[in-house]
Protein backbone atom coordinates (compact mmCIF):
# COMPACT_ATOMS: atom_id res chain seq x y z
CA UNK A 1 0.00 0.00 0.00
CA UNK A 2 1.28 3.48 -0.86
CA UNK A 3 2.25 5.98 1.80
CA UNK A 4 -0.68 8.28 0.99
CA UNK A 5 -3.22 5.46 1.27
CA UNK A 6 -1.73 4.33 4.56
CA UNK A 7 -1.96 7.84 5.97
CA UNK A 8 -5.56 8.26 4.87
CA UNK A 9 -6.67 4.96 6.32
CA UNK A 10 -4.90 5.84 9.57
CA UNK A 11 -7.44 8.66 9.76
CA UNK A 12 -9.99 5.97 10.64
CA UNK A 13 -8.32 5.81 14.06
CA UNK A 14 -9.19 9.45 14.73
CA UNK A 15 -11.15 9.64 18.01
CA UNK A 16 -14.23 11.07 16.29
CA UNK A 17 -14.22 8.25 13.74
CA UNK A 18 -13.81 5.65 16.47
CA UNK A 19 -16.79 7.19 18.27
CA UNK A 20 -18.76 6.86 15.04
CA UNK A 21 -17.88 3.18 14.75
CA UNK A 22 -19.01 2.57 18.34
CA UNK A 23 -22.27 4.36 17.55
CA UNK A 24 -22.83 2.16 14.51
CA UNK A 25 -22.19 -0.97 16.61
CA UNK A 26 -24.77 0.21 19.14
CA UNK A 27 -27.32 0.69 16.37
CA UNK A 28 -26.46 -2.70 14.86
CA UNK A 29 -27.08 -4.33 18.24
CA UNK A 30 -30.75 -3.24 18.04
CA UNK A 31 -31.36 -4.37 14.46
CA UNK A 32 -32.69 -7.85 15.38
CA UNK A 33 -35.63 -6.15 17.14
CA UNK A 34 -38.53 -5.45 14.84
CA UNK A 35 -40.35 -7.15 12.02
CA UNK A 36 -38.57 -10.32 10.92
CA UNK A 37 -39.35 -9.92 7.17
CA UNK A 38 -37.63 -6.53 7.06
CA UNK A 39 -34.56 -7.61 9.03
CA UNK A 40 -32.40 -8.33 5.93
CA UNK A 41 -33.27 -4.88 4.62
CA UNK A 42 -32.32 -3.32 7.92
CA UNK A 43 -28.93 -5.03 7.86
CA UNK A 44 -28.48 -4.07 4.23
CA UNK A 45 -29.09 -0.38 5.00
CA UNK A 46 -26.77 -0.51 8.02
CA UNK A 47 -23.97 -2.14 6.03
CA UNK A 48 -24.34 0.36 3.17
CA UNK A 49 -24.08 3.17 5.72
CA UNK A 50 -20.99 1.59 7.29
CA UNK A 51 -19.29 1.07 3.91
CA UNK A 52 -19.96 4.68 2.88
CA UNK A 53 -18.71 5.90 6.28
CA UNK A 54 -15.43 3.96 6.00
CA UNK A 55 -14.83 5.17 2.46
CA UNK A 56 -15.60 8.77 3.41
CA UNK A 57 -12.98 8.74 6.18
CA UNK A 58 -10.31 7.94 3.57
CA UNK A 59 -11.20 10.86 1.28
CA UNK A 60 -10.36 14.58 1.45
CA UNK A 61 -12.91 16.55 3.41
CA UNK A 62 -13.89 18.92 0.63
CA UNK A 63 -13.94 16.43 -2.26
CA UNK A 64 -17.05 15.73 -4.30
CA UNK A 65 -16.54 11.99 -3.76
CA UNK A 66 -16.90 12.48 -0.01
CA UNK A 67 -20.03 14.60 -0.53
CA UNK A 68 -21.53 11.80 -2.64
CA UNK A 69 -20.79 9.26 0.07
CA UNK A 70 -22.45 11.51 2.66
CA UNK A 71 -25.58 11.51 0.52
CA UNK A 72 -25.44 7.70 0.39
CA UNK A 73 -25.13 7.63 4.18
CA UNK A 74 -28.14 9.94 4.50
CA UNK A 75 -30.30 7.76 2.26
CA UNK A 76 -29.24 4.57 4.06
CA UNK A 77 -29.80 6.11 7.50
CA UNK A 78 -33.28 7.43 6.65
CA UNK A 79 -34.25 4.07 5.16
CA UNK A 80 -33.05 2.32 8.31
CA UNK A 81 -34.98 4.76 10.50
CA UNK A 82 -38.11 3.83 8.54
CA UNK A 83 -37.48 0.07 8.74
CA UNK A 84 -36.20 -0.17 12.32
CA UNK A 85 -38.32 -0.50 15.43
CA UNK A 86 -39.93 2.86 16.33
CA UNK A 87 -38.38 2.75 19.81
CA UNK A 88 -34.91 1.91 18.49
CA UNK A 89 -31.80 4.06 18.20
CA UNK A 90 -31.45 4.04 14.41
CA UNK A 91 -31.65 7.88 14.29
CA UNK A 92 -28.26 7.87 16.05
CA UNK A 93 -26.77 7.24 12.60
CA UNK A 94 -27.90 10.75 11.70
CA UNK A 95 -25.85 12.02 14.65
CA UNK A 96 -22.80 10.39 13.07
CA UNK A 97 -23.70 11.96 9.76
CA UNK A 98 -24.14 15.40 11.34
CA UNK A 99 -20.61 15.20 12.78
CA UNK A 100 -19.23 14.27 9.35
CA UNK A 101 -21.10 17.12 7.69
CA UNK A 102 -19.72 19.58 10.26
CA UNK A 103 -16.21 18.31 9.55
CA UNK A 104 -16.59 18.55 5.78
CA UNK A 105 -18.57 21.72 5.06
CA UNK A 106 -18.69 25.33 6.29
CA UNK A 107 -20.94 25.92 9.32
CA UNK A 108 -23.85 27.49 7.43
CA UNK A 109 -23.96 24.77 4.80
CA UNK A 110 -23.69 22.13 7.51
CA UNK A 111 -26.64 23.59 9.46
CA UNK A 112 -28.80 23.68 6.32
CA UNK A 113 -27.87 20.09 5.44
CA UNK A 114 -28.62 18.79 8.94
CA UNK A 115 -31.92 20.67 9.02
CA UNK A 116 -32.85 18.91 5.76
CA UNK A 117 -31.90 15.58 7.34
CA UNK A 118 -34.15 16.23 10.32
CA UNK A 119 -37.00 17.19 8.03
CA UNK A 120 -36.50 13.93 6.16
CA UNK A 121 -36.44 12.00 9.45
CA UNK A 122 -39.71 13.65 10.50
CA UNK A 123 -41.37 12.75 7.20
CA UNK A 124 -40.13 9.14 7.51
CA UNK A 125 -41.31 8.74 11.11
CA UNK A 126 -44.59 10.61 10.80
CA UNK A 127 -46.51 7.59 9.53
CA UNK A 128 -45.07 5.00 11.96
CA UNK A 129 -44.44 6.93 15.17
CA UNK A 130 -46.99 9.10 16.93
CA UNK A 131 -44.23 11.12 18.57
CA UNK A 132 -42.16 11.81 15.46
CA UNK A 133 -41.65 15.47 16.36
CA UNK A 134 -40.37 14.61 19.84
CA UNK A 135 -37.96 12.02 18.45
CA UNK A 136 -36.64 14.52 15.91
CA UNK A 137 -36.13 17.17 18.60
CA UNK A 138 -34.31 14.74 20.89
CA UNK A 139 -31.90 13.57 18.22
CA UNK A 140 -31.52 17.11 16.88
CA UNK A 141 -30.04 17.99 20.27
CA UNK A 142 -27.56 15.13 19.95
CA UNK A 143 -26.75 16.27 16.43
CA UNK A 144 -26.11 19.83 17.59
CA UNK A 145 -23.77 18.55 20.29
CA UNK A 146 -21.91 16.37 17.78
CA UNK A 147 -21.64 19.23 15.30
CA UNK A 148 -20.32 21.69 17.89
CA UNK A 149 -17.80 19.14 19.16
CA UNK A 150 -16.59 18.45 15.63
CA UNK A 151 -16.50 22.16 14.77
CA UNK A 152 -14.32 23.04 17.75
CA UNK A 153 -12.13 19.98 17.25
CA UNK A 154 -11.58 21.00 13.64
CA UNK A 155 -10.83 24.56 14.75
CA UNK A 156 -8.27 23.25 17.22
CA UNK A 157 -6.61 21.19 14.47
CA UNK A 158 -6.48 24.21 12.16
CA UNK A 159 -5.02 26.37 14.94
CA UNK A 160 -2.42 23.68 15.61
CA UNK A 161 -1.50 23.56 11.93
CA UNK A 162 -1.23 27.36 11.74
CA UNK A 163 0.97 27.39 14.82
CA UNK A 164 3.15 24.67 13.30
CA UNK A 165 3.51 26.73 10.13
CA UNK A 166 4.49 29.85 12.07
CA UNK A 167 6.97 27.85 14.14
CA UNK A 168 8.43 26.30 10.99
CA UNK A 169 8.75 29.75 9.44
CA UNK A 170 10.61 31.04 12.50
CA UNK A 171 12.95 28.04 12.59
CA UNK A 172 13.78 28.31 8.89
CA UNK A 173 14.31 32.07 9.07
CA UNK A 174 16.49 31.69 12.15
CA UNK A 175 18.63 29.06 10.44
CA UNK A 176 19.02 31.28 7.38
CA UNK A 177 19.86 34.37 9.41
CA UNK A 178 22.33 32.47 11.58
CA UNK A 179 24.09 31.19 8.49
CA UNK A 180 24.11 34.68 6.98
CA UNK A 181 25.51 36.12 10.22
CA UNK A 182 28.31 33.56 10.27
CA UNK A 183 29.25 34.42 6.70
CA UNK A 184 29.21 38.13 7.50
CA UNK A 185 31.44 37.57 10.54
CA UNK A 186 33.88 35.48 8.50
CA UNK A 187 34.06 38.25 5.90
CA UNK A 188 34.65 40.87 8.59
CA UNK A 189 37.47 38.85 10.16
CA UNK A 190 39.10 38.26 6.79
CA UNK A 191 39.06 41.99 6.06
CA UNK A 192 40.49 42.84 9.48
CA UNK A 193 43.30 40.31 9.10
CA UNK A 194 44.08 41.50 5.59
CA UNK A 195 43.91 45.21 6.30
CA UNK A 196 45.52 45.34 9.76
CA UNK A 197 47.72 42.32 10.36
CA UNK A 198 48.62 41.92 6.69
CA UNK A 199 49.64 45.57 6.36
CA UNK A 200 51.87 45.47 9.44
CA UNK A 201 53.49 42.18 8.43
CA UNK A 202 54.26 43.62 5.01
CA UNK A 203 55.87 46.67 6.62
CA UNK A 204 57.85 44.41 8.99
CA UNK A 205 59.10 42.30 6.13
CA UNK A 206 60.27 45.35 4.19
CA UNK A 207 62.13 46.66 7.23
CA UNK A 208 63.80 43.31 7.83
CA UNK A 209 64.80 43.08 4.18
CA UNK A 210 66.33 46.56 4.33
CA UNK A 211 68.26 45.80 7.50
CA UNK A 212 69.46 42.45 6.18
CA UNK A 213 70.88 44.22 3.11
CA UNK A 214 73.08 46.60 5.12
CA UNK A 215 76.77 45.93 5.66
CA UNK A 216 77.56 44.11 8.87
CA UNK A 217 73.98 43.01 9.46
CA UNK A 218 73.62 40.03 11.77
CA UNK A 219 73.09 36.74 9.86
CA UNK A 220 69.86 36.12 11.80
CA UNK A 221 68.12 39.02 10.06
CA UNK A 222 67.90 37.12 6.79
CA UNK A 223 66.21 34.23 8.61
CA UNK A 224 63.77 36.66 10.27
CA UNK A 225 62.96 38.18 6.88
CA UNK A 226 62.29 34.76 5.42
CA UNK A 227 60.06 33.80 8.36
CA UNK A 228 58.09 37.03 8.02
CA UNK A 229 57.53 36.24 4.33
CA UNK A 230 56.23 32.77 5.23
CA UNK A 231 54.01 34.22 7.96
CA UNK A 232 52.56 36.73 5.49
CA UNK A 233 51.83 33.90 3.05
CA UNK A 234 50.12 31.89 5.80
CA UNK A 235 48.04 34.92 6.74
CA UNK A 236 46.92 35.39 3.14
CA UNK A 237 45.91 31.71 3.00
CA UNK A 238 43.85 32.12 6.17
CA UNK A 239 42.17 35.24 4.76
CA UNK A 240 41.36 33.38 1.53
CA UNK A 241 39.89 30.43 3.43
CA UNK A 242 37.69 32.79 5.42
CA UNK A 243 36.48 34.43 2.24
CA UNK A 244 35.84 31.10 0.51
CA UNK A 245 32.34 29.92 1.42
CA UNK A 246 29.97 27.29 0.11
CA UNK A 247 27.17 29.80 0.49
CA UNK A 248 24.14 29.79 2.71
CA UNK A 249 22.96 26.44 4.02
CA UNK A 250 19.62 26.49 2.21
CA UNK A 251 19.09 22.75 2.78
CA UNK A 252 19.04 23.14 6.57
CA UNK A 253 16.61 26.06 6.32
CA UNK A 254 14.26 24.12 4.02
CA UNK A 255 14.24 21.04 6.25
CA UNK A 256 13.61 23.27 9.28
CA UNK A 257 10.68 24.78 7.39
CA UNK A 258 9.04 21.43 6.67
CA UNK A 259 9.94 19.47 9.81
CA UNK A 260 7.13 20.63 12.15
CA UNK A 261 4.38 20.11 9.55
CA UNK A 262 2.39 16.86 9.81
CA UNK A 263 2.25 16.73 6.02
CA UNK A 264 3.49 16.89 3.38
CA UNK A 265 6.95 15.44 3.92
CA UNK A 266 9.74 17.30 2.12
CA UNK A 267 11.89 15.33 -0.32
CA UNK A 268 14.77 17.64 -1.23
CA UNK A 269 17.17 17.09 -4.13
CA UNK A 270 19.96 19.67 -3.98
CA UNK A 271 22.74 19.65 -6.58
CA UNK A 272 26.30 19.93 -5.30
CA UNK A 273 26.94 23.00 -7.45
CA UNK A 274 24.21 25.07 -5.81
CA UNK A 275 25.71 27.98 -3.87
CA UNK A 276 23.58 30.81 -2.55
CA UNK A 277 25.43 33.86 -1.25
CA UNK A 278 22.59 36.35 -1.55
CA UNK A 279 20.38 36.31 1.55
CA UNK A 280 17.46 37.91 -0.33
CA UNK A 281 17.59 35.21 -3.01
CA UNK A 282 17.76 32.46 -0.39
CA UNK A 283 14.74 33.95 1.37
CA UNK A 284 12.82 34.07 -1.92
CA UNK A 285 13.51 30.36 -2.47
CA UNK A 286 12.48 29.66 1.11
CA UNK A 287 9.16 31.46 0.69
CA UNK A 288 8.41 29.72 -2.59
CA UNK A 289 8.92 26.31 -0.99
CA UNK A 290 6.83 27.41 1.98
CA UNK A 291 3.93 28.34 -0.29
CA UNK A 292 4.28 25.03 -2.14
CA UNK A 293 4.12 23.16 1.18
CA UNK A 294 0.98 25.07 2.16
CA UNK A 295 -0.72 24.44 -1.20
CA UNK A 296 0.16 20.75 -1.14
CA UNK A 297 -1.31 20.30 2.32
CA UNK A 298 -4.38 22.50 1.90
CA UNK A 299 -5.47 21.95 -1.70
CA UNK A 300 -3.83 18.74 -2.88
CA UNK A 301 -4.01 16.56 0.27
CA UNK A 302 -0.45 15.53 -0.63
CA UNK A 303 1.81 13.41 1.52
CA UNK A 304 5.19 14.19 -0.12
CA UNK A 305 6.46 17.37 -1.79
CA UNK A 306 9.41 16.84 -4.14
CA UNK A 307 11.72 19.85 -4.38
CA UNK A 308 14.73 19.99 -6.70
CA UNK A 309 17.19 22.90 -6.69
CA UNK A 310 20.03 23.24 -9.20
CA UNK A 311 22.09 25.84 -11.02
CA UNK A 312 22.46 25.92 -14.80
CA UNK A 313 23.94 28.57 -17.07
CA UNK A 314 23.70 31.35 -14.52
CA UNK A 315 20.17 30.44 -13.45
CA UNK A 316 18.93 28.95 -10.21
CA UNK A 317 16.23 26.40 -11.10
CA UNK A 318 13.58 25.41 -8.58
CA UNK A 319 11.27 22.50 -9.44
CA UNK A 320 8.42 21.44 -7.12
CA UNK A 321 5.62 18.88 -7.40
CA UNK A 322 3.74 16.64 -4.98
CA UNK A 323 1.85 13.34 -4.97
CA UNK A 324 -1.57 14.90 -4.40
CA UNK A 325 -4.31 15.87 -6.80
CA UNK A 326 -5.36 19.46 -7.40
CA UNK A 327 -9.11 19.96 -7.12
CA UNK A 328 -10.93 22.25 -9.51
CA UNK A 329 -9.44 24.68 -11.98
CA UNK A 330 -5.93 26.01 -11.55
CA UNK A 331 -6.40 29.46 -10.04
CA UNK A 332 -3.68 31.80 -8.81
CA UNK A 333 -4.59 33.03 -5.36
CA UNK A 334 -2.64 35.38 -3.15
CA UNK A 335 -0.04 32.74 -2.35
CA UNK A 336 0.86 31.89 -5.95
CA UNK A 337 0.69 35.55 -6.93
CA UNK A 338 3.14 36.40 -4.16
CA UNK A 339 5.40 33.58 -5.36
CA UNK A 340 5.36 34.96 -8.89
CA UNK A 341 6.21 38.43 -7.58
CA UNK A 342 9.15 37.11 -5.54
CA UNK A 343 10.53 35.31 -8.58
CA UNK A 344 10.12 38.40 -10.76
CA UNK A 345 12.00 40.53 -8.20
CA UNK A 346 15.06 38.38 -8.85
CA UNK A 347 14.82 38.56 -12.63
CA UNK A 348 13.19 35.16 -13.04
CA UNK A 349 9.94 33.62 -14.20
CA UNK A 350 7.41 31.17 -12.83
CA UNK A 351 5.56 28.37 -14.62
CA UNK A 352 2.48 26.61 -13.22
CA UNK A 353 0.92 23.50 -14.72
CA UNK A 354 -0.71 20.19 -13.87
CA UNK A 355 1.36 17.06 -14.17
CA UNK A 356 0.12 13.70 -15.41
CA UNK A 357 -1.26 12.72 -11.99
CA UNK A 358 -3.23 15.95 -11.63
CA UNK A 359 -0.92 17.58 -9.07
CA UNK A 360 0.37 21.14 -9.32
CA UNK A 361 3.83 21.37 -10.89
CA UNK A 362 5.76 24.58 -10.12
CA UNK A 363 8.93 25.59 -11.96
CA UNK A 364 10.78 28.77 -11.03
CA UNK A 365 13.91 30.32 -12.53
CA UNK A 366 15.98 32.88 -10.64
CA UNK A 367 18.84 34.95 -11.96
CA UNK A 368 21.57 33.60 -9.68
Q: What is this structure's SSE topology?
A:
Blueprint: H1 3-10, H2 15-29, H3 39-57, H4 64-83, H5 92-104, H6 107-125, H7 132-212, H8 220-243, H9 250-258, E1 265-270, H10 279-298, E2 304-312, E3 315-322, H11 334-345, E4 349-354, E5 360-367
Helix pairs in contact: 2-3, 2-5, 3-4, 4-5, 4-6, 5-6, 5-7, 6-7, 7-8, 7-9, 7-10, 9-10, 10-11
The class by helix and strand makeup works out as alpha+beta
How many discrete domains? 3
Q: Indicate the radius of gyration in whole angstroms.
A: 34 Å
Number of strands: 5
Low-confidence stretches: 1-9
Number of separate helices: 11
Strands in their spatial order, largest beta sheet: 1-2-3-5-4
Q: How do the SSEs run, as a string of H and E? A: HHHHHHHHHEHEEHEE
Distance between the first and last residues' Cα: 41 Å
- Amount of beta strand: 5-15%
Residues in helices, as a percent range? 55-70%
Q: What global shape is seen?
A: rod-shaped
Largest sheet: 5 strands, mixed
Overall mean confidence score, pLDDT: 79
Amino acid sequence: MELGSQSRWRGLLHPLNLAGLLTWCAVAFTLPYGDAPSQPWRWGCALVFLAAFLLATALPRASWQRATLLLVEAAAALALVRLAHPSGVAPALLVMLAAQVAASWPPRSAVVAVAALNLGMYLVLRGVNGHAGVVVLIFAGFQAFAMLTTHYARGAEQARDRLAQVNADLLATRALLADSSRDAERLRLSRELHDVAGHKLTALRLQLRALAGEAGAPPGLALCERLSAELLGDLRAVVQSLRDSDGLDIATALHALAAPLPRPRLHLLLDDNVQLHDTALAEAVLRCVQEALTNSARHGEAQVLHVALRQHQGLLLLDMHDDGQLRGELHEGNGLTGMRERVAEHGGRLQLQRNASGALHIQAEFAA
